Amino acid sequence: MTQKQLQETTEYLISKGFDNPEIGIVLGTGLGKLVDEIKNPITAHYNHIPFFPLATVEFHSGKLIYGELEGKKVVVMQGRFHLYEGYDFIDITYPIRAMHALGVKKLLISNAAGSINLDFKKGDLMLIEDHINLQGGSPLTFKDVARFGDRFVDMSQPYDLEMCNTLIETAKKENISLKKGVYASVVGPQLETKAEYRYLKIIGADAVGMSTVPEVIVANHLRLPIAAISVITDEGDPDNLEPVNIEEIIRIAGEAEPKMITLFRELIKSL
C-alpha cells in the first residue's frame, strides 16, 4: 500500500460523486439493509474501485455507497473483507484508510457474532467495549507504516466513549436491550470447537467473530473515533453445542437489524 494508491482510490471515488463524507459505516454479515435508508445514493462496486479487494463471501455484496443519512454525508461499506478469504491485513483494512482519505471523521461498525457470555441470546445486540485480537497479526506491520500514522498505536481505549455512551442512552430511550462486552476476533472460517469456546470464556471474551478488530486497529492508527455493535446470531455454549446453520445466522441478523439501524441513525443524528 502506498500514498499514491490511496490517492488514486480517492480520486476515483470523488469523480463518482463521493463528496466529503463525514461518517463511515461498515455493515456486517446479514446487516445490509441500512443502505435502503440512504437518500440520493451513489454506488461504487468494489471491482471498479482502484486497489480495492473483491468481496468473495456470497452474503457480502461488495459495494461502497455514498449518500445522506439523518442530514449527514455518509459512506457505507456493504460487505467487508476477511482474512479467511485469503486477503492480508493490509487488504482487509484498505477501505478504512480510503474512507479516512475521503474525509470521514467518525466510524461505525457492525458485525454478526457468536455469544460466549451465556447471558447473551440470539438476536441480542452487544456494544463492543473492548476486544481481543486472536487473528495472529496486525494491519500495522508494514515498512512504511510511519508515513500513515504512529507506528506504536495506543489501544487503552480503542472505542470512543462519547459515541458509546450515546448508543447506551439511545438504547434506553428506544427500549432496546443493548448488552456490553468484549469481542474476540479469530481467523475462521471454521467455527469454534467446544474447547475453544471454553478457552474464549476463560480469557474474558463475551462474543466471538471473524472481523472488526483489524478495522478498529487501523481506525485508531488514523485517530478516527469508532463505535461498534455485534448482533448475536448464535450461542457458543460448549455444554449444549449445536451445529451452526449459516442460513439461520443470516436470518437472525436480519431480524435484529432494525434495532441496530435505530441505534446507528440516532447516533448519526447526534454527531
TrEMBL record:
Keywords: Glycosyltransferase, Transferase. Pfam families: PNP_UDP_1. This is Purine nucleoside phosphorylase. One of its GO terms (molecular function) is purine-nucleoside phosphorylase activity. Residues 23-269 form the Nucleoside phosphorylase domain. The purine nucleoside phosphorylases catalyze the phosphorolytic breakdown of the N-glycosidic bond in the beta-(deoxy)ribonucleoside molecules, with the formation of the corresponding free purine bases and pentose-1-phosphate. Homotrimer. Belongs to the PNP/MTAP phosphorylase family. It comes from the Bacteria. Its EC number is 2.4.2.1. PROSITE patterns: PNP_MTAP_2. Pathway: Purine metabolism; purine nucleoside salvage. It comes from Galbibacter pacificus.
